[in-house]
Amino acid sequence: MLIRSSDRQSIGCSNGLPAGGTVLLVWLALAGAAGPRLEAAERDPRRPNVVVILADDIGYGDLGCYGATQVRTPNLDRLASQGRRFSDAHSPASVCTPTRAALLTGRYSWRQAAGSGILSGEAPLCISTSLLTLPKIFKSAGYVSGAVGKWHLGLGGDPNGNEKSGAKTDYNAPIQPGPLEIGFDYFFGLPATGDRVPCVYIENHGVVGNDPNDPIKVSYGKPIGDEPTGKEHPELLKVHPSHGHDNTIVAGISRIGYMTGGKAARWIDEDMADVLAGKAVGFMESHRGEPFFLYFCTHDIHVPRVPHPRFAGRSRHGTRGDVIEELDASVGEVLSSLDRLGLADDTLVIFTSDNGGVIDDGYQDGAASDTSGHRPNGALRGFKGQLFEGGHRVPFIARWPGHIPVGQSDQLICHVDLSATCAALLGEKLPDDAAIDSFDILPALLGEAGPVREELVHHTGGFPGGLAIRSGAWKLIAGTPARGQQPERKPLLFNLAEDPTEEHDLAADQPERVAELTERLAAIRKNGRGRTTK
Fold it and tell me: Whole-model pTM above 0.85?
Protein backbone atom coordinates (compact mmCIF):
# COMPACT_ATOMS: atom_id res chain seq x y z
CA MET A 1 0.00 0.00 0.00
CA LEU A 2 1.42 3.39 -0.94
CA ILE A 3 1.02 6.77 0.70
CA ARG A 4 0.70 9.60 -1.78
CA SER A 5 3.58 12.01 -2.13
CA SER A 6 3.53 15.62 -0.95
CA ASP A 7 5.88 18.51 -0.51
CA ARG A 8 8.53 18.38 2.19
CA GLN A 9 7.50 20.08 5.43
CA SER A 10 8.73 20.48 9.00
CA ILE A 11 7.11 20.13 12.41
CA GLY A 12 7.74 20.08 16.16
CA CYS A 13 6.35 18.99 19.62
CA SER A 14 7.15 17.01 23.06
CA ASN A 15 6.76 15.02 26.62
CA GLY A 16 6.14 11.34 28.21
CA LEU A 17 7.18 9.05 31.16
CA PRO A 18 6.15 5.77 32.91
CA ALA A 19 4.82 5.12 36.41
CA GLY A 20 4.51 1.44 37.15
CA GLY A 21 4.11 -1.73 35.19
CA THR A 22 5.70 -3.25 32.12
CA VAL A 23 6.02 -1.45 28.83
CA LEU A 24 4.96 -2.62 25.41
CA LEU A 25 5.56 -0.97 22.09
CA VAL A 26 2.83 -1.96 19.72
CA TRP A 27 2.78 0.19 16.63
CA LEU A 28 -0.54 0.18 14.81
CA ALA A 29 -0.49 2.04 11.54
CA LEU A 30 -3.18 4.12 9.97
CA ALA A 31 -2.53 6.30 6.99
CA GLY A 32 -4.76 9.30 6.71
CA ALA A 33 -4.18 12.45 4.74
CA ALA A 34 -1.53 12.84 2.12
CA GLY A 35 2.11 12.14 2.89
CA PRO A 36 5.38 11.25 1.22
CA ARG A 37 5.43 8.12 -0.91
CA LEU A 38 6.55 4.85 0.67
CA GLU A 39 8.08 2.29 -1.64
CA ALA A 40 7.75 -1.35 -0.71
CA ALA A 41 11.05 -3.07 0.01
CA GLU A 42 11.71 -6.71 0.83
CA ARG A 43 9.52 -7.52 3.84
CA ASP A 44 9.95 -9.88 6.74
CA PRO A 45 7.01 -12.29 6.52
CA ARG A 46 6.94 -12.42 10.33
CA ARG A 47 6.55 -8.78 11.18
CA PRO A 48 5.57 -8.19 14.81
CA ASN A 49 2.87 -6.15 16.41
CA VAL A 50 4.43 -3.06 17.94
CA VAL A 51 3.53 -1.52 21.27
CA VAL A 52 5.27 1.68 22.30
CA ILE A 53 4.70 2.71 25.90
CA LEU A 54 5.72 6.31 26.50
CA ALA A 55 5.69 7.25 30.18
CA ASP A 56 5.69 10.83 31.40
CA ASP A 57 8.51 12.36 33.47
CA ILE A 58 10.14 9.04 34.35
CA GLY A 59 13.80 9.63 35.03
CA TYR A 60 16.85 7.48 34.37
CA GLY A 61 16.95 6.36 38.01
CA ASP A 62 13.24 5.80 38.62
CA LEU A 63 13.00 2.06 37.86
CA GLY A 64 14.37 -0.93 39.72
CA CYS A 65 16.10 -2.20 36.60
CA TYR A 66 17.94 1.15 36.42
CA GLY A 67 19.03 1.08 40.06
CA ALA A 68 16.06 2.41 42.07
CA THR A 69 15.68 0.89 45.54
CA GLN A 70 12.89 2.98 47.11
CA VAL A 71 10.22 2.07 44.54
CA ARG A 72 9.10 -1.32 43.23
CA THR A 73 8.73 -1.84 39.48
CA PRO A 74 8.41 -5.63 39.05
CA ASN A 75 6.68 -5.48 35.67
CA LEU A 76 9.22 -3.16 34.10
CA ASP A 77 12.02 -5.13 35.70
CA ARG A 78 10.61 -8.29 34.14
CA LEU A 79 10.39 -6.58 30.78
CA ALA A 80 14.05 -5.61 31.08
CA SER A 81 15.05 -9.13 32.13
CA GLN A 82 13.36 -10.50 29.00
CA GLY A 83 14.70 -7.88 26.61
CA ARG A 84 17.35 -5.25 26.03
CA ARG A 85 17.94 -2.33 28.37
CA PHE A 86 19.66 0.75 26.95
CA SER A 87 21.93 2.95 29.04
CA ASP A 88 22.45 5.77 26.51
CA ALA A 89 18.92 6.40 25.19
CA HIS A 90 17.53 9.92 24.90
CA SER A 91 14.28 11.77 24.44
CA PRO A 92 14.43 14.29 21.56
CA ALA A 93 13.67 17.11 24.02
CA SER A 94 13.67 17.55 27.77
CA VAL A 95 9.97 18.43 27.87
CA CYS A 96 6.89 16.68 26.57
CA THR A 97 5.32 18.23 23.47
CA PRO A 98 8.55 18.50 21.42
CA THR A 99 9.49 14.92 22.29
CA ARG A 100 6.13 13.55 21.19
CA ALA A 101 6.16 15.46 17.93
CA ALA A 102 9.67 14.27 17.11
CA LEU A 103 8.84 10.67 18.00
CA LEU A 104 5.82 10.60 15.68
CA THR A 105 7.47 12.40 12.74
CA GLY A 106 11.16 11.51 12.84
CA ARG A 107 11.97 15.24 12.81
CA TYR A 108 13.41 17.33 15.60
CA SER A 109 10.65 19.62 16.84
CA TRP A 110 12.89 22.72 16.81
CA ARG A 111 12.79 22.68 13.00
CA GLN A 112 9.41 24.39 13.18
CA ALA A 113 7.89 26.78 15.72
CA ALA A 114 4.58 24.92 16.13
CA GLY A 115 4.91 22.30 18.83
CA SER A 116 8.51 23.09 19.69
CA GLY A 117 7.43 24.10 23.20
CA ILE A 118 4.84 22.93 25.72
CA LEU A 119 1.34 23.43 24.30
CA SER A 120 -1.75 24.62 26.13
CA GLY A 121 -5.06 22.77 26.16
CA GLU A 122 -6.53 24.99 23.44
CA ALA A 123 -3.66 24.88 20.94
CA PRO A 124 -4.30 23.61 17.40
CA LEU A 125 -2.74 20.41 16.09
CA CYS A 126 1.00 21.08 15.73
CA ILE A 127 1.77 18.30 13.23
CA SER A 128 0.91 18.99 9.61
CA THR A 129 -1.49 16.39 8.25
CA SER A 130 0.62 16.16 5.09
CA LEU A 131 3.68 14.85 6.94
CA LEU A 132 4.69 11.21 6.90
CA THR A 133 4.17 9.98 10.46
CA LEU A 134 4.83 6.80 12.35
CA PRO A 135 1.21 5.57 12.17
CA LYS A 136 1.19 6.25 8.42
CA ILE A 137 4.26 4.05 8.04
CA PHE A 138 2.38 1.25 9.78
CA LYS A 139 -0.73 1.90 7.72
CA SER A 140 1.27 1.52 4.53
CA ALA A 141 2.39 -1.89 5.77
CA GLY A 142 -1.19 -3.02 6.42
CA TYR A 143 -1.32 -2.42 10.19
CA VAL A 144 -4.10 -0.89 12.25
CA SER A 145 -2.92 1.76 14.71
CA GLY A 146 -4.22 3.19 17.95
CA ALA A 147 -3.17 6.00 20.26
CA VAL A 148 -4.21 5.85 23.91
CA GLY A 149 -3.35 8.27 26.70
CA LYS A 150 -1.73 11.67 26.85
CA TRP A 151 -1.76 13.47 23.50
CA HIS A 152 -0.46 17.01 24.10
CA LEU A 153 0.14 17.79 20.42
CA GLY A 154 -2.78 20.14 19.94
CA LEU A 155 -6.24 19.43 18.55
CA GLY A 156 -8.26 21.06 15.82
CA GLY A 157 -7.38 24.44 14.41
CA ASP A 158 -5.19 24.93 11.38
CA PRO A 159 -4.58 21.58 9.60
CA ASN A 160 -1.03 22.67 8.72
CA GLY A 161 -0.04 23.17 12.33
CA ASN A 162 0.14 26.97 12.07
CA GLU A 163 0.28 28.05 15.70
CA LYS A 164 -0.04 31.72 14.70
CA SER A 165 -3.29 31.19 12.82
CA GLY A 166 -5.25 32.18 15.92
CA ALA A 167 -7.24 28.95 15.80
CA LYS A 168 -8.35 27.50 19.13
CA THR A 169 -9.73 24.06 19.89
CA ASP A 170 -13.53 23.90 19.95
CA TYR A 171 -14.48 21.08 22.33
CA ASN A 172 -18.20 21.31 21.50
CA ALA A 173 -17.84 20.42 17.82
CA PRO A 174 -16.15 17.51 16.05
CA ILE A 175 -12.50 17.89 17.13
CA GLN A 176 -10.35 17.66 14.06
CA PRO A 177 -7.71 17.54 12.77
CA GLY A 178 -6.19 15.38 15.45
CA PRO A 179 -4.70 11.90 15.93
CA LEU A 180 -6.86 10.32 13.22
CA GLU A 181 -5.85 12.93 10.66
CA ILE A 182 -2.14 12.18 11.14
CA GLY A 183 -2.63 8.44 10.66
CA PHE A 184 -4.11 6.73 13.72
CA ASP A 185 -7.25 4.60 13.32
CA TYR A 186 -8.35 5.08 16.93
CA PHE A 187 -7.69 7.56 19.73
CA PHE A 188 -8.71 7.79 23.37
CA GLY A 189 -6.99 10.11 25.77
CA LEU A 190 -6.24 13.49 27.30
CA PRO A 191 -6.07 16.64 25.18
CA ALA A 192 -2.95 17.90 26.97
CA THR A 193 -1.80 17.14 30.54
CA GLY A 194 -3.56 16.43 33.81
CA ASP A 195 -2.60 19.81 35.19
CA ARG A 196 -4.12 21.69 32.23
CA VAL A 197 -7.75 22.30 31.33
CA PRO A 198 -9.96 20.96 29.87
CA CYS A 199 -10.07 17.95 32.20
CA VAL A 200 -11.99 15.65 29.85
CA TYR A 201 -11.30 12.57 27.74
CA ILE A 202 -11.42 12.63 23.96
CA GLU A 203 -12.39 9.58 21.90
CA ASN A 204 -11.69 9.92 18.20
CA HIS A 205 -13.33 13.26 17.30
CA GLY A 206 -15.39 14.06 20.40
CA VAL A 207 -15.44 14.63 24.16
CA VAL A 208 -16.55 11.53 26.04
CA GLY A 209 -19.81 12.17 27.88
CA ASN A 210 -20.18 15.78 26.82
CA ASP A 211 -23.59 17.39 27.38
CA PRO A 212 -24.54 19.88 24.63
CA ASN A 213 -26.56 21.77 27.25
CA ASP A 214 -23.39 22.34 29.28
CA PRO A 215 -20.87 23.49 26.66
CA ILE A 216 -17.16 23.45 27.44
CA LYS A 217 -15.33 26.76 27.39
CA VAL A 218 -11.59 27.08 27.89
CA SER A 219 -9.30 30.06 28.37
CA TYR A 220 -5.58 30.37 28.95
CA GLY A 221 -5.84 34.14 29.33
CA LYS A 222 -8.63 35.84 31.23
CA PRO A 223 -10.81 33.93 33.73
CA ILE A 224 -14.14 32.68 32.40
CA GLY A 225 -17.26 31.52 34.19
CA ASP A 226 -17.77 31.60 37.94
CA GLU A 227 -16.08 28.37 39.03
CA PRO A 228 -13.68 28.69 41.99
CA THR A 229 -9.93 28.92 41.48
CA GLY A 230 -7.12 27.61 43.62
CA LYS A 231 -5.77 31.10 44.09
CA GLU A 232 -9.02 32.45 45.55
CA HIS A 233 -10.30 29.32 47.33
CA PRO A 234 -7.37 27.22 48.63
CA GLU A 235 -9.69 25.73 51.27
CA LEU A 236 -11.36 23.68 48.49
CA LEU A 237 -8.16 21.93 47.42
CA LYS A 238 -7.03 18.38 48.21
CA VAL A 239 -3.65 19.07 46.57
CA HIS A 240 -2.17 22.55 46.84
CA PRO A 241 0.00 24.21 44.18
CA SER A 242 3.60 25.13 44.91
CA HIS A 243 3.89 27.51 41.97
CA GLY A 244 1.38 28.38 39.27
CA HIS A 245 -1.36 25.75 38.86
CA ASP A 246 -3.85 27.91 40.74
CA ASN A 247 -6.60 28.48 38.18
CA THR A 248 -9.92 26.58 37.85
CA ILE A 249 -10.46 23.83 40.41
CA VAL A 250 -11.51 20.49 38.94
CA ALA A 251 -12.05 17.49 41.24
CA GLY A 252 -10.35 19.25 44.14
CA ILE A 253 -7.21 20.21 42.20
CA SER A 254 -6.50 23.63 40.70
CA ARG A 255 -5.09 23.57 37.16
CA ILE A 256 -3.32 25.69 34.58
CA GLY A 257 -5.98 27.61 32.65
CA TYR A 258 -9.65 28.27 33.14
CA MET A 259 -12.62 26.16 32.13
CA THR A 260 -16.35 26.11 32.58
CA GLY A 261 -18.96 23.59 31.48
CA GLY A 262 -18.55 19.93 30.64
CA LYS A 263 -19.23 18.86 34.23
CA ALA A 264 -20.56 15.43 33.26
CA ALA A 265 -17.46 14.75 31.17
CA ARG A 266 -14.75 15.61 33.69
CA TRP A 267 -12.30 12.91 34.69
CA ILE A 268 -11.46 11.60 38.16
CA ASP A 269 -7.69 11.82 38.60
CA GLU A 270 -7.42 8.75 40.82
CA ASP A 271 -9.08 6.59 38.13
CA MET A 272 -7.03 7.82 35.18
CA ALA A 273 -4.35 5.12 35.15
CA ASP A 274 -6.98 2.37 35.18
CA VAL A 275 -9.07 4.04 32.48
CA LEU A 276 -6.13 4.45 30.12
CA ALA A 277 -4.70 0.97 30.70
CA GLY A 278 -8.15 -0.48 30.09
CA LYS A 279 -8.44 1.33 26.76
CA ALA A 280 -4.97 0.14 25.71
CA VAL A 281 -5.85 -3.46 26.53
CA GLY A 282 -9.21 -3.10 24.80
CA PHE A 283 -7.52 -1.95 21.61
CA MET A 284 -5.24 -5.00 21.57
CA GLU A 285 -8.15 -7.31 22.25
CA SER A 286 -10.18 -5.80 19.42
CA HIS A 287 -7.34 -6.23 16.93
CA ARG A 288 -5.73 -9.45 18.10
CA GLY A 289 -6.34 -11.06 14.71
CA GLU A 290 -4.49 -8.46 12.63
CA PRO A 291 -1.13 -6.68 12.85
CA PHE A 292 -1.38 -3.62 15.06
CA PHE A 293 0.61 -0.69 16.37
CA LEU A 294 -0.28 0.73 19.77
CA TYR A 295 1.06 4.08 20.98
CA PHE A 296 0.25 4.02 24.70
CA CYS A 297 1.15 7.24 26.53
CA THR A 298 0.60 7.00 30.26
CA HIS A 299 -0.20 10.11 32.27
CA ASP A 300 1.83 8.79 35.18
CA ILE A 301 3.98 10.16 36.58
CA HIS A 302 3.16 13.70 35.47
CA VAL A 303 1.59 16.11 37.95
CA PRO A 304 -0.84 16.22 39.55
CA ARG A 305 0.39 13.03 41.15
CA VAL A 306 -2.82 11.55 42.51
CA PRO A 307 -2.56 7.75 42.76
CA HIS A 308 -5.51 5.44 43.11
CA PRO A 309 -6.10 4.58 46.80
CA ARG A 310 -4.69 1.07 46.30
CA PHE A 311 -1.29 2.64 45.50
CA ALA A 312 -1.34 5.55 47.94
CA GLY A 313 1.37 5.14 50.58
CA ARG A 314 2.83 1.96 49.04
CA SER A 315 6.30 3.16 48.10
CA ARG A 316 9.21 4.44 50.16
CA HIS A 317 9.50 7.53 47.95
CA GLY A 318 6.26 9.25 48.92
CA THR A 319 3.50 10.15 46.50
CA ARG A 320 5.93 10.39 43.59
CA GLY A 321 7.01 6.82 44.25
CA ASP A 322 3.39 5.71 44.57
CA VAL A 323 2.59 6.88 41.03
CA ILE A 324 5.73 5.16 39.74
CA GLU A 325 4.37 1.91 41.15
CA GLU A 326 0.98 2.72 39.62
CA LEU A 327 2.71 3.20 36.27
CA ASP A 328 4.39 -0.15 36.64
CA ALA A 329 1.00 -1.74 37.25
CA SER A 330 -0.33 -0.19 34.03
CA VAL A 331 2.57 -1.71 32.12
CA GLY A 332 1.81 -4.99 33.83
CA GLU A 333 -1.74 -4.85 32.50
CA VAL A 334 -0.44 -4.52 28.96
CA LEU A 335 2.10 -7.31 29.35
CA SER A 336 -0.28 -9.74 31.01
CA SER A 337 -2.85 -9.06 28.30
CA LEU A 338 -0.30 -9.92 25.60
CA ASP A 339 0.34 -13.18 27.43
CA ARG A 340 -3.37 -13.91 27.77
CA LEU A 341 -4.02 -13.17 24.10
CA GLY A 342 -1.10 -15.34 23.00
CA LEU A 343 0.63 -12.35 21.40
CA ALA A 344 3.72 -11.87 23.56
CA ASP A 345 6.11 -13.70 21.23
CA ASP A 346 4.80 -11.81 18.21
CA THR A 347 4.97 -8.32 19.70
CA LEU A 348 7.78 -5.81 19.92
CA VAL A 349 7.32 -3.90 23.13
CA ILE A 350 9.21 -0.69 23.80
CA PHE A 351 9.05 1.24 27.03
CA THR A 352 10.58 4.68 27.50
CA SER A 353 9.90 8.19 28.84
CA ASP A 354 9.28 11.57 27.22
CA ASN A 355 11.97 13.33 29.29
CA GLY A 356 13.92 13.13 32.51
CA GLY A 357 12.54 13.20 36.01
CA VAL A 358 11.55 16.22 38.08
CA ILE A 359 10.79 16.70 41.78
CA ASP A 360 8.60 19.77 42.37
CA ASP A 361 6.64 20.35 39.17
CA GLY A 362 3.97 22.67 40.52
CA TYR A 363 2.18 20.92 43.39
CA GLN A 364 2.89 20.35 47.07
CA ASP A 365 2.76 16.56 46.88
CA GLY A 366 5.67 15.86 49.23
CA ALA A 367 8.26 15.22 46.53
CA ALA A 368 10.29 18.31 47.41
CA SER A 369 10.61 17.25 51.04
CA ASP A 370 11.12 13.53 50.45
CA THR A 371 13.97 12.09 52.53
CA SER A 372 14.01 8.56 51.11
CA GLY A 373 17.24 9.15 49.20
CA HIS A 374 15.64 8.26 45.88
CA ARG A 375 17.27 10.09 42.95
CA PRO A 376 14.90 10.39 39.96
CA ASN A 377 17.73 10.66 37.44
CA GLY A 378 20.25 8.52 39.28
CA ALA A 379 23.73 10.04 39.32
CA LEU A 380 23.04 12.20 36.27
CA ARG A 381 23.15 15.98 36.51
CA GLY A 382 20.00 17.99 35.89
CA PHE A 383 16.27 17.49 35.60
CA LYS A 384 13.37 17.76 33.16
CA GLY A 385 13.61 20.91 31.06
CA GLN A 386 17.42 21.05 31.10
CA LEU A 387 20.15 20.14 28.61
CA PHE A 388 22.18 18.23 31.19
CA GLU A 389 21.86 14.44 30.92
CA GLY A 390 19.21 14.24 33.62
CA GLY A 391 16.87 16.20 31.39
CA HIS A 392 16.85 13.79 28.45
CA ARG A 393 18.71 10.51 29.14
CA VAL A 394 15.86 8.14 29.92
CA PRO A 395 15.06 4.45 30.42
CA PHE A 396 14.55 2.55 27.17
CA ILE A 397 13.64 -1.14 27.17
CA ALA A 398 12.85 -3.26 24.11
CA ARG A 399 11.49 -6.83 24.08
CA TRP A 400 10.75 -9.10 21.13
CA PRO A 401 11.22 -12.72 22.19
CA GLY A 402 13.46 -14.71 19.90
CA HIS A 403 14.73 -11.61 18.10
CA ILE A 404 16.05 -9.11 20.64
CA PRO A 405 18.78 -10.65 22.79
CA VAL A 406 18.57 -10.27 26.55
CA GLY A 407 21.11 -7.88 28.01
CA GLN A 408 22.25 -4.28 28.17
CA SER A 409 23.38 -1.94 25.40
CA ASP A 410 25.38 1.29 25.57
CA GLN A 411 24.44 2.27 22.00
CA LEU A 412 23.46 5.91 21.48
CA ILE A 413 19.78 6.02 20.41
CA CYS A 414 16.87 8.47 20.45
CA HIS A 415 13.06 8.37 20.20
CA VAL A 416 13.27 10.29 16.93
CA ASP A 417 14.79 7.11 15.45
CA LEU A 418 11.56 5.12 15.68
CA SER A 419 10.33 6.20 12.23
CA ALA A 420 13.36 4.88 10.34
CA THR A 421 13.57 1.85 12.60
CA CYS A 422 9.94 0.80 12.17
CA ALA A 423 10.14 1.40 8.42
CA ALA A 424 13.13 -0.97 8.30
CA LEU A 425 11.32 -3.48 10.51
CA LEU A 426 8.29 -3.45 8.20
CA GLY A 427 10.28 -3.42 4.96
CA GLU A 428 9.10 0.07 4.01
CA LYS A 429 11.46 2.51 2.29
CA LEU A 430 11.35 6.08 3.59
CA PRO A 431 11.46 8.95 1.09
CA ASP A 432 14.54 11.15 1.39
CA ASP A 433 12.43 14.10 2.55
CA ALA A 434 10.65 12.19 5.34
CA ALA A 435 11.78 11.60 8.93
CA ILE A 436 14.94 13.58 8.16
CA ASP A 437 16.43 13.23 11.65
CA SER A 438 15.66 9.54 12.12
CA PHE A 439 18.22 6.71 12.06
CA ASP A 440 17.54 3.00 11.72
CA ILE A 441 18.48 1.61 15.15
CA LEU A 442 17.09 -1.86 14.46
CA PRO A 443 20.65 -3.30 14.53
CA ALA A 444 21.07 -1.89 18.04
CA LEU A 445 17.78 -3.45 19.15
CA LEU A 446 18.80 -6.80 17.67
CA GLY A 447 22.16 -6.69 19.44
CA GLU A 448 24.35 -6.30 16.39
CA ALA A 449 27.82 -4.85 16.93
CA GLY A 450 28.84 -1.34 15.94
CA PRO A 451 27.24 2.05 16.60
CA VAL A 452 24.20 3.01 14.54
CA ARG A 453 24.31 6.69 15.44
CA GLU A 454 27.30 8.92 16.15
CA GLU A 455 25.62 12.28 16.70
CA LEU A 456 22.48 13.53 18.39
CA VAL A 457 20.96 16.97 19.01
CA HIS A 458 19.38 17.67 22.40
CA HIS A 459 16.65 20.28 22.88
CA THR A 460 15.11 21.97 25.91
CA GLY A 461 11.86 23.08 24.26
CA GLY A 462 10.93 26.29 22.49
CA PHE A 463 11.84 27.59 19.06
CA PRO A 464 14.66 27.07 18.55
CA GLY A 465 15.18 26.72 22.30
CA GLY A 466 18.39 25.64 23.95
CA LEU A 467 20.34 23.08 21.94
CA ALA A 468 23.23 20.73 22.61
CA ILE A 469 25.06 18.28 20.37
CA ARG A 470 26.41 14.87 21.26
CA SER A 471 29.20 13.48 19.08
CA GLY A 472 30.76 10.25 20.25
CA ALA A 473 31.77 10.77 23.88
CA TRP A 474 31.70 14.56 23.53
CA LYS A 475 28.78 16.81 24.35
CA LEU A 476 28.58 20.54 23.70
CA ILE A 477 25.82 22.63 25.26
CA ALA A 478 25.64 25.53 22.85
CA GLY A 479 26.15 29.04 24.13
CA THR A 480 23.55 31.75 23.66
CA PRO A 481 23.87 35.54 23.32
CA ALA A 482 22.39 37.89 25.90
CA ARG A 483 18.64 38.46 25.41
CA GLY A 484 16.67 41.01 27.39
CA GLN A 485 17.15 40.20 31.06
CA GLN A 486 18.96 36.94 30.30
CA PRO A 487 22.77 37.15 30.36
CA GLU A 488 24.99 35.51 27.80
CA ARG A 489 25.45 31.78 28.32
CA LYS A 490 28.84 30.47 27.37
CA PRO A 491 29.17 27.01 25.78
CA LEU A 492 29.84 24.01 28.00
CA LEU A 493 31.89 21.01 26.88
CA PHE A 494 31.90 17.59 28.53
CA ASN A 495 33.54 14.24 27.87
CA LEU A 496 30.80 11.82 28.93
CA ALA A 497 33.08 8.78 28.76
CA GLU A 498 35.28 10.23 31.48
CA ASP A 499 32.74 12.51 33.16
CA PRO A 500 29.20 11.07 32.85
CA THR A 501 27.91 13.36 35.61
CA GLU A 502 29.04 16.49 33.73
CA GLU A 503 31.06 17.98 36.55
CA HIS A 504 34.03 19.26 34.53
CA ASP A 505 33.51 21.86 31.80
CA LEU A 506 36.35 21.57 29.26
CA ALA A 507 35.28 24.37 26.92
CA ALA A 508 38.08 26.74 27.92
CA ASP A 509 40.69 24.00 27.53
CA GLN A 510 39.52 22.77 24.11
CA PRO A 511 38.37 25.74 21.99
CA GLU A 512 39.03 23.83 18.75
CA ARG A 513 36.65 21.06 19.75
CA VAL A 514 34.06 23.65 20.75
CA ALA A 515 34.38 25.23 17.31
CA GLU A 516 34.13 21.86 15.56
CA LEU A 517 30.98 20.81 17.43
CA THR A 518 29.43 24.23 16.95
CA GLU A 519 29.96 23.83 13.21
CA ARG A 520 28.48 20.33 13.25
CA LEU A 521 25.39 21.55 15.09
CA ALA A 522 24.91 24.30 12.53
CA ALA A 523 25.20 21.77 9.70
CA ILE A 524 22.58 19.48 11.22
CA ARG A 525 20.24 22.38 11.79
CA LYS A 526 20.58 23.30 8.13
CA ASN A 527 20.62 19.90 6.44
CA GLY A 528 18.92 17.30 8.61
CA ARG A 529 20.31 14.07 9.98
CA GLY A 530 23.80 13.76 11.37
CA ARG A 531 26.41 11.20 10.51
CA THR A 532 26.73 7.56 11.40
CA THR A 533 29.74 5.31 11.49
CA LYS A 534 27.96 2.73 9.39
Answer: yes
